[in-house]
Amino acid sequence: MYVADVINHLESIAPASLQESYDNSGLLVGQKDTPVSGVLVCLDCIESTVVEAIEKKCNLIVAHHPIVFSGLKRFNNENYVQRTVQLAIKYDIAIYAIHTNLDNVYENGVNAKIAEQLGLINTKILAPKSGDLVKLVCYCPLANEEHIKEVLFEAGAGHISKYSECSFTTEGIGTFKPGVGTNPVLGKVGTRHAEKEVKIEVILTKRDMNAAITALKKAHSYEEIGYEIYPTLNETSYEGSGMVGELPAAMSPVEFLTFLKLTMNLVVIKHTIWSKEIRKVAVCGGAGQFLMSYAKACNADAYVTSDFKYHEYFDAENKLMICDIGHYESEKYTIDLLFDILSKKFTTFAVLKTEVNTNPVNYFT
Fold it and tell me: Is the dihedral of CA 50, 345, 219, 163 positive or negative?
């Protein structure tokens, strides 16, 4: 197995195209054609993480946060970013980051892991992405229908939330007039022909569009293929930021805070005042203030996230309880998530969870 194999598996779950514009996910150090001797998963890749990888004979580190966000102009051990990168290069350790693309998926994503940890049910994306879906419409003979559907589904088309192989078909009559130089099997040149056809419609993401069209052209029985691509404004129910769900049973604010502290293994929770029962809970791993309006709009009783600034707590406006549990604390179970994803897929090398606590924030209690 090679570094590329690990990357391909991770990006089949959280495609690189889903990362935000400011992000720097991907292979940051190393080469894709390097054989993997072991993988170390972590939240942050810093110097101590690289040292741990060396000691455990892991030559690939899979981290949630990228060690490099912007361009490095010097490599002189001046700061922890440079020292980490230089140490990894020196010992041939590859570093791969899977950040906001892992935040933006419904299944096996950062927020799904938080929701799972809290036991939330009836979960859905808090802020779904829109404009990322297109509709592919194509036409084929009746006898070719099932084969065309099969190759389109294999190329990623027809996925709607938790459902797959979704399509709509209608039968009709297609007409054509062969021109000079066309396949004589099609009929006499200059004579219009009519044939029973089926119209197939499927939804797919923009990133799967080229693969679907390529598969369609390869599988189709026609010399020239009729198809159309339509942009949509549909929101995707399986891609986007944050998550919202319900507790199995309502709790009082104190009960919920106690439950949250115990379940997420917290030292402290910064929160606003809330006097009603808590049943609906919104979550966002990492800095989640940007989703505050969505949490309020869906009528969440509590919003579990991190990194609120002082004045941003006023934005609760007595419409929900903000629960700021800390950045590291909100995302630390991502280590377990990545470990599960990789260990279930790869058995020819060791997949290990870091034992280094990389949280730069400490609490004096």
Answer: negative
Q: Which CATH code is given to the segment(s) 3-101+333-353?
A: 3.40.1390.30
Kindly report the pTM of this predicted structure. Answer: 0.85
362: CB partners within 8 A, 6+ apart = none
Instruction: Please spell the DSSP secondary structure of 57-125, one letter per residue.
Output: T--EEEEEE-S-SS-----SS-SHHHHHHHHHHHTT-EEEE--HHHHTBSTT-HHHHHHHHHT-EEEEE
* 276-300 residue pLDDT tens: 999 999 999 999 999 999 999 999 9
User: In this structure, are strands 94-97 and 60-65 parallel, antiparallel, or unpaired?
Assistant: parallel
Domains 3-101+333-353 and 110-128+240-325 share a fold: yes
The answer to which of 1-5, 76-80, 191-195 has the lowest mean pLDDT is 191-195
The predicted structure's pLDDT at residue 251? 98
What's the CA gap between 234 and 242, in Å, rounded? Answer: 18
CB distance 278 to 315 below 8 Å: no
The fold for domain 110-128+240-325 equals 3.40.1390
Pick among 3.30.70.120, 3.20.20.70, 3.40.50.1110, 3.20.20.220: CATH of 132-232:
3.30.70.120
